[in-house]
Amino acid sequence: MQMKECVFIDGVRTANARAHAEKGWFKNLKPDQTLAAVLKALFERNSKVKPEDIGALFVGTANPSGLQNDVARLTWLSHGFPERVPTQTVSNQCPSGMAATIDAARAIISGEEDIMIAAGVEDMEKVPMGANMGFPDAFFTRYNMLEIPMGNTAEKVAKLYDIARADMENMAIYSHKKAYAATVAGKFKNEIVPVMGKKEDGTEFLVTKDQWVRETLDAAQMATMRTPFQADGRVTAATSSPLTAGAAALLLMSREKADQLGLSYTYKYKLGVQEGNDPTLMGMGPELAIKKIFKKTGLGPKDIGAYEINEAFAAQALACIRETGIDKANAPFDKVNLWGGAIALGHPLGESGARVLVTLMNVMKTECPNEKYGIATLCGGFGNGAGVLIEKV
Ligand SMILES: CC(C)(COP(=O)(O)OP(=O)(O)OC[C@H]1O[C@@H](n2cnc3c(N)ncnc32)[C@H](O)[C@@H]1OP(=O)(O)O)[C@@H](O)C(=O)NCCC(=O)NCCS
After folding, report:
1. 69 in a domain, yes or no?
2. Which of 25, 174, 230, 243 to mutate to test the pocket of ligand 1 (most atoms within 8 A of CB)?
3. How far is the CA of 271 from the centre of ligand 1 (A)?
4. Which domain holds residue 149?
5. Whole-angstrom Cα distance, residue 280 to residue 157?
6. Residue 194: inside a domain, yes or no?
């Protein structure tokens, strides 16, 4: 078998809704329903590709228990898709959707398959973070139990890399400002698949925008917010990604197959990297992923047109930007998260790895269409960073 090029044909996502039993716009939807919505949208938008043509569906989810139990297979079958198509649920915490994409791209590049769907889904209200979670005894011999929860790792990164609370709040302000501007300008229209959700009062409505995005943030009020993870800490709800629900999916194809079908494409999958690190500093994953991409390709910050760095917390995103020197030390950034990041857009754990790739391609097509390279990257609980380099073809 010959090695092939892998191109991105399309990418879609639902809006990201608050994961909240009363206030969340997706309180009426289950993870299989948001995932099915993006899968169906991919087939509707790309009518030359039929479900039976797919080599496999890979779906990332951070917590594959409860309603997210083998969410790839159970969603595929429950929503009437053909039994013949194999599926796989992929799980390595937050990078799960990106891991699914990397796996799918590798299947195409190796020549094993020609058409793949990679997706990510999470509903942090129906399947709460940490639910049904156990740990090997020896894990807490090696690591301090108090340094493992996600918020605590953000506090540790903030102290170690000397990230001031005011800098994190400034980053949050710009994350919302850019996300709001992009939303109002209709820039997410190409990626957001409308789904029926429910307002707080129970009224049904078509959800077409991300629920957490705020028009303005009050800097003075933010500075008084409590620090939920540590009594004398720096990280607040305003500088953390919120608990969120949503799904995203990408259609990947060998370039050869896409040409045969007469399908157009703009970007190809150039390189995927994964890199492990100290779980108590898990947020530094993007630093390692970006440096690994540069080392493997010989590219540097000047070669990259845009970055999507998942803002699990402002502390870790800022530390990664500073340690790699890819942008200014403080927001507003020139190349990072040009349409806002997870602090504003939300972070449905397993979804985000696919979402940042979908958004990266739309950002590049719109904001810097002549740039050749873009990078999407995110950190992951227990120390699993991931990154993907895309190249304009
Ligand atoms: C930070 C965290 C603990 C806060 O959770 P919470 O206490 O349930 O709080 P909420 O997110 O509902 O926000 C609390 C309140 O602050 C408000 N708030 C959030 N950001 C705000 C801001 N920038 N300005 C003003 N108010 C804000 C919310 O609107 C909410 O008030 P409301 O219910 O009246 O609307 C939670 O969001 C969290 O754990 N985030 C990190 C998730 C995570 O670890 N992801 C994985 C990363 S690797």
Report:
1. no
2. 243
3. 34
4. 142-186+270-392
5. 9
6. no
Count Cα atoms within 13 angstroms, Cβ side, for 31. Answer: 34
Helix axes 314-324, 150-160, angle to 10 degrees: 40
Amino acid at 175: S
Residue type for position 136: P
Looking at 6, 20, 94, 320, which residue is catalytic?
94
Whether 372 contacts 365, CB under 8 Å: no
Cα 122 to Cα 21, 255, 273, 348, distances in angstroms: 15, 30, 22, 5
Paired with 11 in beta bridges are 250
DSSP state of 23: T
pLDDT tens digits for range 158-196? 999 999 999 999 999 999 999 999 999 999 999 999 999
Q: How many CA atoms lie within 13 A of 254 on its CB side?
A: 18
Model pTM score:
0.98
CATH number at residue 378: 3.40.47.10
In a domain, 227, yes or no: no
In order of 29, 74, 103, 202, the CA distances from 245 in angstroms are 9, 18, 23, 17
Number of domains in the chain: 1
- Residue 347 annotated among the catalytic residues of the structure: yes
If one counts every other C-beta atom within 10 angstroms of the C-beta of residue 302, the result is 7
Q: Residue 152 and residue 146: Cα distance in Å, rounded?
A: 7
pLDDT in tens, 129-144: 999 999 999 999 999 9
Alpha helices, H only, the chain = 31-45, 71-78, 96-109, 139-142, 150-160, 165-184, 219-222, 255-261, 285-297, 314-324, 342-345, 349-367
> DSSP letter string over 72-93?
HHHHHHHTT--TTS-EEEE-SS
Angle at 348 between CA 33 and CA 269, to 5 degrees: 90
Which of 326, 274, 333 lies closest to 300, judged by CA? 326
Q: Is the CB of 279 under 6 A from ligand 1?
A: no
Task: Give the pLDDT score at 1.
Answer: 82
> How would you class 291 by CB atoms within 10 Å of its CB: exposed for 0-12, middle for 13-18, buried for 19 or more?
middle
Residue 257 within any structural domain of the chain: no
Tokens found for residue 193: 């698949």
